[in-house]
Hints:
There is one protein chain. The chain is built from twelve helices and 18 strands. The strands form four sheets. It has an eight-stranded mixed β-sheet, with helices on both faces. A five-stranded mixed beta barrel has the order 1-2-3-5-4. A three-stranded antiparallel β-sheet has the order 7-9-8, with no helix packed on it. By secondary structure, it is of the alpha+beta class. It has two domains: 88 residues, CATH 2.40.50.140; 295 residues, BirA Bifunctional Protein, domain 2, CATH 3.30.930.10. It starts with 19 loop residues before the first strand and ends in a 20-residue tail after the last helix. The relative contact order is 0.11.
Amino acid sequence: MVFVKTHDISELTSELIGKEVVLGGWIEDLRKLGKMSFITLRDVSGISQVIVKGELNDNLGEINRQSVVSVKGIVQETKARDFAFEIKADEIDVLGKAIHPLPVDPIGRVESNIDTRLNHRALDMRNQKTASIFKLRHHVLQSLRQTLAEKKFLEITTPKIIGSASEGGADLFSLNYFGDTAYLAQSPQLYKEQMTLGLERVFEISNFYRAENSHTGRHLTEFTSIDIEAAFMDYTDVMDVLESLVMNVYKFTAENCKKEQESIEHTIEVPSSPFERITYNQCIEELQKEGEKVEFGDDLMDAHLRIIGKNHPGFFFLMDWPMKLKPFYIREKDEDATLSRSFDLQFGYLELSSGGTRLHNPEMLQERLKEQGLDPSQFTDHLKSFDWGMPPHSGWGMGLDRLMTTLIGIDNVREVVLYPRDPDRLRP
């Protein structure tokens, strides 16, 4: 049988009253009352009531909830409080039968823990709270791309299988590549820098990989990163770009995703701007006043960031980090070579983004690689592009999954990733 759906449920209007439609969806609820049955039918766009009478009701048989059906019938007005219209069914066909009982309850009347839900993720997507999270994620991506396009950034796609450690880190997944050793990319850093040579402003939204054996609610081994790189911009310029992106995401979803906010029972509050900008040195002073034994040059641990986050709730930039704490490609400040032209975007204690102004002098880059114990010969392909006239440039990378947790008010990134990968989860 060929099934042709004529309308989404959300497209039912008063103009269709008395007309025939064919809907497709799953049965969220079914009540048999004598010679009538009431079916609650849902599709991705909404929910409707279906009335089944007469011979069709007599022959309805047993249909399990969550089964997928097609319904042909007439749109009519309804007295039901929760529906704008209802369908008087003429035909009902079961397209996909659901077992009973199901491993998770998509309606949410029986709660399941997150591991059980992740093990049955496709079914979990019928839970309207879960579905709304991923509808919001869709709108966030839409907003990000629109804002970056308006700022004249071009979207690129860089390799995810690479021949050398792009940032010299140890947290890389390696694989056999036809007899050679390859790695899964942990960022597009070197490629996006190279692209400023001809395209000037570029961005990428893609998955990257980090073999970090962390068991927290904010770490994943496969994560979605938003990255930009821009020629002729300083780190303060790309900080402005980042702030505008975050603000636009919050404004767009707050205004256009009312139903999703109702489903997740969370109201998106647009943050105040401009975001506060504090320096690393200010953080050290604040921590010392709190009795923490930290000195200039020490990295800020999670406990330190929780103190700073308490003092500076919401979004803020933490800038001008010591050079020795930053990767080889970050440029120092002209007025103080011990400090870098760099920043992190924080949401309280949570780091969302890291960026800065890059070194574009090839001789200085080689020296910096040696200082950090890295072999310049491993970066030959990258370094040679700097001999072709590399413009000064800056950029950042931001974790989309972490941004989503701030938007919807949760603290576990697994809730906002379809099929999360961490040290304990490789399936489904």
